[in-house]
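dumping the sequnces here before i forget
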Amino acid sequence: MSNGNANRSETSVEVPLTGQSFKGLEGFSSGSETEVEDVEGFTFVKRGEADSEVSNAKESANESDAETSLEETGSAVATDEVEPLDALYASYTELLVEAKQQRTEVIIGPVDSRIRINTVTTYPWRAIVALKITAKDNSKWIGTGWLISPRTVITAGHCVYMHDRGGWAKSIEVIPGLNDAQRPYQSGVSSTFKSVTGWINSKNRDNDYGAIILPSNYRPGATTGYFGFAVKDDSYLMSSVLNLSGYPGDKGGNQQWFMALKPKSVPARIITYEIDTMGGQSGAPVWIKVGESRFCVGIHTNGHSSGNSATRIVTAVFNNLQAWKNLGL
Amino acid sequence: METRGTVKGIIVDQSGKPVNDAIVMIVDGTTEFNDIASVSNEDGEFYISNVVIPGRYVLQIQGKNQKKIHEVNLQSKDIVVRIAF
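..and the predicted 3d for all of it:
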């Protein structure tokens, strides 16, 4: 967990800027983005050109379409009640509902500024999933993920492929909106995973991301809705409030906890921030809310006292997420 | 060049019995670390995953009704960290 700085409370109420342009087609291409997938226990390393999607021709066509916008819209599915904003939370809107309902439970201070999300059956919280991971060697782990389609969950690469524990996970249980013992959308177990060669072959921190494709008979995203994702430029990210919510182990791994703050820095492939996180939040969404739209711009992966960090969604990452999204429609 | 590895640990209670279902996470370290958490098995075994070795790390062990902070100095990935909980 990172500790906050003295300016946190002031920073947290800054208004996320809107109307700025997306990054466009600037390339972050490298051979390390080639997709690697695991299907029912077998590993396939597909060779191809740098950044090429190798699943099938249809998905490649969709990638080309995506590059013209670099923004994939999410879906709340059901209509959520829209509450009026008060002055304090007008620019910090993800907090609004929680703050009104449980202000006395909010933890604010220099050490831990996370707040618990109790309204897990409302969007976007219900599109965030707890992960119960069983590695190939049967060791157990916990992490977080987020839905981008009815059956596609995005998470950290190290949640689906653990180099020192046998490689691809044996299975992962996905639990949307988990809230202590309550599982409002049941759960599903998958052994179909995706990642990229940069993580699988090189353990490159810049490529630490992956996906879980849920079985065809379990489609939680059709009910919960799902996140959009987008490529944003440096200035846009630095002026935006980042939202992060997941299932930290210090709270038992069965409760969703949230915090928001502007980023600390935005290197080419990473976003760093002083949002408090804990083990178990790997794979959590890092998103920006613009109006009623929510776009993930990063996948939380790492912790450190100098700043926690996410794998940044750049063009190559976006393209793979788009392809994986299509697999879970 | 940094070397990363995974180190095994064992959690035992005050009587020496393995502690099952404790959540173990890194809360600070000499270098950044993955924000995944390990869950101990019936033998009390857990793992500190993908960390730079050598390095010092602060672990938090979260049980159902208690927690503990424990600092480890990992000089080799072949050592086994033993924690009394």
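The radius of gyration of chain B is 12 Å.
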